Amino acid sequence: MIGELAEGGRAILLISSELPELISLCDRVLVMSEGRLTADLARGEATQESIMQAAVPRGVTPAVAA
Fold this sequence. Notes:
Order of helices and strands: HHEEH
Largest sheet: 2 strands, antiparallel
Number of strands: 2
Strand content: 15-25%
Strand order of the largest sheet: 1-2
């Protein structure tokens, strides 16, 4: 349904914390952190890593699974 609306020329605003869903559905991903826009990623640039890097406040190191 979202794809059909987008193909019809409609803009879709999708807010989600499900990164695989965002990456598969969106042509562009905007990331906000602490009330500020921290990244504007095109489809080819939007990876789970790039989104998380932009979402984590500066000076904070994201946890990494061992």
